[in-house]
Task: structure prediction
Amino acid sequence: MSTRTASPPRPAHRTAPADRPEAPEEAAGGGTVFLRNVRALLLGGIGTGAVRALRSVVLSRLLGPAGYGHLDLAIFFSRTLASLARLGLADATVRFGAGLPAPKARLLARRSSAVVALAAALLAPIGAILSASALGRAGPEPIVVAAAAFAAVPPLAVADVARSYFLARQDFATPTRVGLATALAGFLLEALAILAGLGVPGVLGASLLVSLGALAAFARACERDRAEDAPGFSLPSAGGIARYAAARFALGALALVTWTRFEVAFLGHYWNASEVAFYALPFGVVGAAVQLLPGSISAVLPAAYPERRARGGEAAAADLYRGAFFQMAAVGLPLGALGAVLAGPLVSLVFSESFLPCVPVVRVLAVGAVLSMVTSAASHLVLSSSRAPWMIPVVAAGAAANVGLDFAWIPRGGALGAAWANTASQLFESGLAVGAAAVTCSVRPPVGRLATLLLPLGACVAVGILAMSLLHGNPWLGAGLGAPAMAAAYYGVGRVTGAFRREDLEALRVFLRFPRLPWPRSRA
Result:
């Protein structure tokens, strides 16, 4: 989170990078850059999402509910610690590196990586020891599993800082390529580890190799970015970076409670590993789907808001907020409806009958994840402004609500209780974020325009329910015919009623016509 005193010097961050010529259409408002980055995330996300979905299917079938729950619990602990070990410096690299020429942005990323590497190396052994007992309740070999999981903490943390260098440079293609390659390599290695009889420790060992490979790929791509330096640019002060990173670290630590698999820790304590899997598997699959569609727009906003402000002031940032809010809703709402209506056939078809207890979990998480992602436009807007400290009480309130609801609902409700607790706390925090944006930035979501989506959404749900009733819940026909019918009803009614404007259709075409789009090239 930024503060007024932590802001970088205006000349270095209010001016377009000297090593990148400014296209006329970018100068007009940055729309080309914005859609180019959305396209990069979408194209890579389609491939990465497909690989990760296949990974979830294969690993869940090979390991079973108990084994998959054991694996997810170990991954939760290691990735949580990796997030903490970043110390907010990944966000600081994006915030302060935006607008710097490549050599200085690279120097900033190197310094941040060195600090993060040291922190991760110190924290990983401590985390492995502390989590071994929790992992032991979920399955055998707790020490081996904990050691394998936490060995990946340093490369995970440092790779995220290296990735931030490219985001600061408005290069989303390079992280997309690396993410797709590592997802594919990880899936193949993990599947081979299970088939070789190495079990959960073998899967975690494969994950470690992939993390190291991702870090090496980012380092090589960073060195290949040979853009020249420019006079008049200087690195921000270490104190300013430290203040900003500390604030983002506090926010990130609180956000881990509400926006990650935090509930698996409660489920591992009160329930068995199978119940962990019934929550963790839907959480991962639904999260991947939401990150792919509305999330492709949301992920571009942290870098897009500062650029819009630099070019057109607060009014330009407010216009981007309203447009992105509506576009994420337009893409996400039918996705949530599809997950809620077709949850039964999809779970039965993809994950086998042994995972049918997680069908209601999918329904709850699908609706909650979409609504929360749409409102992320508000939190990104506040965090990119000088009023970013307002987000601390917002995120703290969401985390407190989540912990309280976990204690209240998980002991009695298991995986479904965890889904309701997480969804309710996310929606509570999202509402507070929208209110914070209205107060601090004087901008509100486009409520009137959002209301125009109700009729297309109603048609989408009605067609889905009708299809399921006619198909008698057949999983093959439900997934093969129900989903396309729901999408066609939504888009058709939306076009007829005029719910989508021209600029919305331009953004939606990125999603609807992605096969025609060329693979984005990195600027390096």
